[in-house]
Specification:
406 residues, mainly alpha, Growth Hormone, Chain: A, 2 domains, 79% helix, globular
Length: 406
């Protein structure tokens, strides 16, 4: 097993720190604005349409720049891509905090989410490059860090804005971007060699590899599984407070807490699922657990919402275990770093594009029906596609096999 020069000279420890710090930056901007829009509106005109637009930017940018990341990889090494992504994230945070108009706030947000979209796709091949013998454990670690840091901005935004200013509350997350740059700039300077030792002549440039991924049943199945997960997660984050308020009479403060509970369920799952995926003979049991959790949680929310609303939310929160599962399968279903970044870009690009439809479709169904039964039934129906995609990716084959068959 050939490791890059930086890894063979102690770079793995530095890369481990770098992976953790990058993961800490991948979700901080997503929920940093929503708790303090009242304070932001004092200086920047943000109406309800603007709030909706800013809310759709994360999945859209993750999708677009996820698909572009393998193209960028054609001219940049993995370490270079990470550095560029972190610079974009850091600059975006600072510009959001300095915004004096909605246009500036929106453009700065696009810059931030563009960096996050590239970093999303780059982390799996980085893990494959530096930790080919520890894929499950390292994926588990960074997925957990990502989940934990997604919980932080909503918790600290209001206190920081009250104590200082909303601009500080928004820009403070740039600190983590600066911290993450240190190990990756060091690795970039150390490892001047190509980012992967490719010995198979059939492995082409990343842009060509990405094109081949469009014709792979495995890539489409993985993207479908990721997309169905994203639809459920983004829809729940956007609409759960209103759903539980209307169907269960939950107070606004408790409804907000239920969103945090739903997200917090993902912390232990992020720790356990990638490790299990590397040790189980088949990941089918994990797919069936996810599907059953969605069905039971949503059914309870429809039929007995007032009886145990917290229980239904916890059970439904188990369903997105497919998120860390997909992250580790990106590496388990490829042989090379080039294949990994192609599959990562395709899966997350298409998946986030599908996920962006979740809040919109739930809102349209609610508006058309005047209630929440059909929106929740729609979310339950996505379980069919979770199972279909999951059964395909559970088969023990790799992306490169699809190319050779063609």
């Amino acid at each position: 097993m050939t490791l890059p020069r930086a890894a063979s000279h102690g770079g793995r420890a530095l890369a481990l720190v770098g992976v953790v710090l990058v993961a800490a930056n991948l979700r901080t901007a997503v929920a940093a604005l929503s708790p303090i829009y009242a304070e932001i509106r004092v200086d920047v005109a943000v109406d309800s349409i603007g709030v909706g637009l800013l809310g759709t930017l994360p999945p859209l940018c993750f999708a677009v720049f996820g698909l572009l990341a393998p193209v960028f990889r054609r001219v940049l090494r993995l370490e270079s891509l990470v550095v560029v992504a972190l610079l974009a994230i850091t600059a975006g945070h600072l510009l959001r905090g300095a915004s004096t108009s909605f246009a500036m706030l929106a453009l700065a947000s696009i810059l931030t989410f563009a960096g996050m979209g590239v970093a999303n796709v780059t982390l799996p091949p980085i893990v494959k490059k530096y930790f080919p013998d520890r894929v499950g454990a390292i994926t588990s670690l960074y997925a957990t860090v990502m989940t934990l840091f997604a919980l932080m901005p909503p918790l600290v935004a209001v206190p920081v804005a009250d104590a200082f200013d909303w601009r500080i509350a928004v820009a403070i997350w740039a600190v983590f971007g600066l911290l993450a740059l240190a190990p990756w700039v060091t690795l970039w300077l150390r490892d001047r060699a190509p980012s992967v030792a490719v010995t198979d002549r059939d492995y082409d440039a990343p842009a060509v590899v990405l094109g081949r991924a469009w014709h792979s049943p495995l890539a489409w199945a993985l993207a479908l599984l990721f997309g169905m997960t994203a639809i459920n997660v983004f829809a729940v984050f956007a609409w759960l407070p209103e759903i539980v308020h209307d169907v269960a009479g939950v107070a606004p403060a408790e409804a907000g807490a239920l969103v945090s509970v739903y997200a917090a369920v993902g912390v232990p799952l992020s720790l356990v699922v990638p490790v299990l995926a590397t040790r189980l003979r088949s990941v089918r049991p994990l797919i069936w657990i996810a599907a059953a959790s969605y069905v039971v949680g949503y059914t309870g929310l429809l039929l007995a919402p007032g009886a145990a609303v917290w229980l239904w939310i916890v059970i439904a929160g188990i369903g997105p275990l497919t998120f860390p599962l997909v992250l580790v399968l990106i590496n388990l279903r490829t042989r090379t770093a080039e294949g990994s970044i192609a599959l990562s870009g395709f899966t997350q690009g298409i998946g986030y594009l599908i996920g962006a439809l979740g809040p919109l479709l739930v809102g349209v169904l609610h508006e058309a029906s005047g209630g929440w039964t059909w929106p929740v039934v729609f979310l339950m129906a996505t379980v069919v596609f979770v199972v279909l995609g999951g059964l395909v990716v559970a088969r023990p084959h790799v992306l490169e096999d699809d190319w050779h068959r063609r």
